[in-house]
Amino acid sequence: PGTYRPYDLGQEMGIWVNNSDGVTPAVGKAWPPRDSVFPDYTNPRTVEWWTQMCLEFKDVLDYDGIWIDMNEPSNFLRGQYPGCAVNDINNPPYIPSISDRSLAQKTLCPDSKTYLGEHYNTHSLFGWSQTAPTFQAAQQATGKRAFVLSRSTFIGSGKHGGHWLGDNFSQWKDMHQSIIGILEFNLFGIPYIGADICGFNYNTTYELCLRWMQLGSFCPFSRNHN
């Protein structure tokens, strides 16, 4: 507090995803060196805050577009501090075969509160609800057609942004699967789509990277991110 304007203004405006009490902000861990809070983009006030931050950042760095990442929302913990309560929302009768068999794994507790309700019901909308205001803010800041990429998407995301297929591996099967992913996202209405060419994890090889660059030249969104 007092050293980081995005946090101070967000705290003042009350725009964070909250704990199950609906009052105290959910605190987790991401790339910043200490702890992280999570903007609730389903809250109209968050859109005001985000637009203001994007406009101010344009004076710091003269950007052309905005890349929004980690917006599942991603959290390095299983739920926020001090962990998730034992209840039916956090531990429903059926859980998909996902990492660690926990809905809170690498994200927030399902009983966290957002403007529209419990995180259990709004989790998949986090990236979607961030993409449209980012598009509007970037367009307002640059005065040009906005360029926005989002890692988390939902139905309708393609109207305001593109997508990449996330952290893949430098393996031939991942290059093969990227073709499937790109075609699928065209069916989902997100035509500006591509993979991390040459792979994101592991070291690539000359032959793999050469072939993937050749394939990547045909992808709508083409980026070597090895």
Automatic annotation (TrEMBL):
Q: Name one GO molecular function term.
A: alpha-1,4-glucosidase activity
Q: Which family does it belong to?
A: Belongs to the glycosyl hydrolase 31 family.
Q: Know the name of this protein?
A: MGA protein
GO process annotations (BP): carbohydrate metabolic process
The answer to whether UniProt assigns keyword Oxidoreductase to this entry is no
Task: Please report the stretch or stretches of sequence annotated as the Glycoside hydrolase family 31 TIM barrel domain.
Answer: 3-226
Q: Which Pfam families match?
A: Glyco_hydro_31_2nd (PF01055)
Q: Which UniProt keywords apply?
A: Glycosidase, Hydrolase, Signal
Keyword Hydrolase (UniProt): yes
Taxonomy, superkingdom: Eukaryota
